[in-house]
Design brief:
InterPro entries: Gln-synt_C, Gln_synt_N, Gln_synth/guanido_kin_cat_dom, Gln_synth_cat_dom, Gln_synth_gly_rich_site, GS_Type-3, GSIII_N. By secondary structure, this protein is α+β, with helices and mostly antiparallel strands. It contains 25 helices and 19 strands.
């Protein structure tokens, strides 16, 4: 029992759920208590300053430095009163993680006295090293200067560092010295602004009272949880975020018993603790449950404005990891940490609301509202159809490559699901020029059980295999990876819809200029749009091989590899779209393309190196030691004149030898492929080589290793097994 694996198992199995003390207040009393919210600003700022800040947030205006000084003073007083000792600009560089540099709330006077200090200039702007973050060639190593800038539309918050102090975190953008965006937030804010302008302009045809459109988002976060000791006993989890080896356990998810099952005590304690902390930070987490795969779970929030929702999701992931540590657990956000069972996604539920309280994607039976709904619905469908490859590029990553199309997630083919009722409505629009959105009468199931209240049936079923599905009053983009920053996807989605709505306005204004009646002109335009984009609609099983064939016949792309998908970013039509909408310039797009390719290369490279190390230094060496034991046993039997009895052992010896040989040759070939790829200077070509020649060795090496796991004595096997990792209680 000296095996490190068994020591980790002993630790994991001895652990109990850690009790969590619930706040004494009601949720409404402590929700957002660690955020510098509008209520806090109203209490601490002068009426003039408060009005200017809230107006700037609402209108996308600027805040002058005098007002910034007052806000900074109020922020400092509020934060230090709650125990904060430092402040930081909290931003989202293109690493995929959040970043922060902490500065203390004090300065030294000329006579050596320490005083608390936090001016508006420190609130508005800070300077991290731009050349040390991914920049895609926008900055040279010797050109270090870059700036973070306060985003007042996302409230500052207090983060407990776990060591008795708190830090005031100020959500910020991150730009280079020459002004290019080096983060996820800056292009997102521009895309949201573009959609606001274009959608508001279209809304004006239906209701002049609508002066602002706010895109909303509710990202459902899937994740796995494993014991902390077992995590550190798996070098591949530590270094690559996923298990590169591991035979499927006898019992995985085939019984469908984990989904919505009773939450294990240790996990439940972690969830409760996390939710309390999330509520204090103003994150409206509402739903928690077991997911399909063992060890997999989900948390879902209430809808928020997109920028805030994405900030909250990035903060949520960080907070989950911090709280999990307290409970001796590790949270895994990798899209496919375990082979043979479902991976994890981040389902982005997106819609658009108006300043008058209308959800633009909510069906209505009133003629004018129905026409408005169909207008926005058809334009979204056409935007996705015309830019399907760009939307696919927004979800491309090394991790998501393992998940997409793996019989648990939408395929790499982008399609749209509307449901039978809406599809029929659009068919009627095309063939009869009629718009009838039937919200449906209340339909109830007759169960024959009088004690059960009547259960209502929705007008349309759901399709969980569709990557972009309409779900009643919103679209759910299910193909986003669980580790991703949703800002990338939301930047693309909001930009393409904004661009399409601008085209619609241009087409409609041209017809109105000819004297056509508005309603008839709108219907004619929508008929044309639908006829040209309906091939993107699919109601069936997106997991099936038949759909792959049908999609090809329809002319829909199936960009399976990340390098192939990412190349869409720098195609002329994509560059033109970003420029038209003002979301990114050519240099910013091209730099992101370079960064994403480099990120892909490095992730696959790390996995390859981890796989080679574990295969040769852990698995093969263990298999050879076990082989020696068997050989000794076989020799003893032969010496006892038990040759027949020794034959099965000799068969096992031969199998071990043959599998070890395949592993050794596979690892050597993989290393040579890696060397070949590393010698290629062009990033695009190097990424393609990693996606094909390097990664192509993974499955064959894994197959042999997983077979050895079934042969080698359990007492000798060095890696924590799936059956031990996936069933935390």
């Amino acid at each position: 029992m000296s095996n490190f694996r068994f020591k980790a198992l002993e630790i994991a199995q001895s652990r109990q759920a850690i009790p969590v003390t619930a706040p004494t207040e009601r949720v409404g009393d402590f929700f957002g208590s660690n955020t510098f919210s509008t209520e806090v600003m109203r209490a601490l700022l002068s009426p003039e300053a408060y009005l200017k800040v809230t107006e700037a947030i609402s209108t996308n205006g600027q805040i002058d430095r005098a007002i910034a000084d007052e806000v900074a003073s109020a922020m400092k007083s509020w934060a230090t009163a709650k125990g904060a000792t430092h402040y930081t600009h909290w931003f989202q560089p293109l690493t995929g993680e959040t970043a922060e540099k902490h500065d203390a709330f004090f300065d030294i006077t000329i006579d050596g006295k320490a005083i608390e200090k936090f001016k508006g200039s420190a609130l508005v702007q800070q300077e991290p090293d731009a050349s040390s973050f991914p920049n895609g060639g926008l900055r040279n190593t010797f050109e270090a200067r870059g700036y973070t800038g306060w985003d007042p539309s996302s409230p500052a918050f207090l983060m407990d560092n776990g060591a008795g102090g708190k830090t005031l975190c100020i959500p910020s953008v991150f730009i280079s010295y020459t002004g290019e965006a080096l983060d996820y937030k800056t292009p997102l804010l521009k895309a949201l602004n573009a959609l606001d302008k274009s959608a508001t302009a279209v809304c004006q045809y239906f209701d002049r009272n609508i002066t602002k459109v706010i895109p909303t988002l509710g990202p459902e976060q899937e994740y796995f949880v494993v014991d902390r000791a077992l995590f550190y006993a798996r070098p591949d989890l530590v270094l690559a975020g996923r298990t590169v080896f591991g035979h499927s356990p006898a019992r995985g998810q085939q019984l469908d018993d984990h989904y919505f099952g009773s939450i294990p005590p240790r996990i439940n304690a972690f969830m409760v603790d996390f939710e309390f902390e999330a509520m204090k930070l103003g994150m409206p987490v509402r739903t928690r449950h077991n997911e399909v795969a063992p060890g997999q779970f989900e948390v879902a929030p209430t809808f928020e404005e997109v920028n805030l929702a994405i900030d909250h999701n990035a903060l949520l992931m960080d907070l989950m990891e911090r709280v999990a540590e307290k409970h001796n657990l590790k949270v895994l956000f990798h899209e496919k940490p375990f082979a043979g069972i479902n991976g994890s996604g981040k389902h982005n539920n997106w819609s658009m609301g108006t300043n008058t309280g209308v959800n633009l994607l909510a069906p209505s039976t009133r003629p004018k509202e129905s026409l408005r709904f169909i207008t926005f619905l058809v334009n979204v469908v056409k935007a996705v159809h015309d830019n399907a490859d760009l939307l696919r590029a927004s979800i491309a990553s090394a991790g998501n490559e393992y998940r997409l199309g793996a019989n648990e997630a939408p395929p790499a083919i982008v399609s749209v699901f509307l449901g039978e009722t809406l599809t029929q409505a659009l068919n009627d629009l095309e063939t009869k020029s009629e718009i009838t959105v039937n919200k449906g009468d209340n339909v109830y199931y007759k169960l024959g059980l009088n004690r059960i209240p009547s259960l209502m049936r929705d007008n349309t079923d759901r399709n969980r295999t569709s990557p972009f599905a309409f779900t009643g009053n919103k679209f759910e983009f299910r193909a986003v990876g669980s580790s991703a920053n949703s800002a990338s996807t939301m930047t693309i989605l909001n930009a393409i819809v904004a661009d399409q709505l601008n085209k619609f306005k241009t087409d409609l204004d041209a017809r109105l200029g000819k004297g056509e009646k508005k309603e008839l002109a709108i219907v004619d335009i929508l008929k044309e749009y639908y006829a040209n984009s309906k091939q993107i609609l699919f109601e069936g099983n997106g997991y099936s091989d038949e759909w792959v064939e049908e999609a090809a016949q329809r002319g829909l792309s199936n960009l399976k590899s990340s390098p192939e998908a990412l190349s869409v970013f720098v195609q002329p039509e994509s560059l033109a779209l970003f420029e038209r909408t003002g979301v990114m310039n050519h240099a910013e797009v091209e730099s992101r393309y370079e960064i994403e390719l480099e990120k892909y290369i490095k992730n696959v490279q790390i996995e390859s190196r981890v796989m080679g190390d574990l295969a040769m230094n852990h698995v093969v060496s263990t298999a050879l030691k076990y082989q020696n034991k068997l050989a000794e046993t076989a020799r003893n039997l032969i010496e006892l004149d038990m040759t027949v009895e020794a034959e099965p052992i000799k068969d096992i010896l031969r199998e071990i030898s043959s599998r070890v040989l395949v592993i050794k040759k596979g690892v050597e070939a993989m290393i040579e492929s890696r060397k070949k790829a590393n010698n290629v200077e062009d990033t695009t070509e190097r990424a393609k080589l990693y996606a094909t020649e390097v990664k192509n060795h993974f499955d064959s090496i894994r197959y042999e290793v997983d077979k050895l796991e079934q042969i080698v004595d359990d007492e000798d096997w060095p890696l924590v097994k799936y059956r031990e990792l996936l069933f935390v209680k």
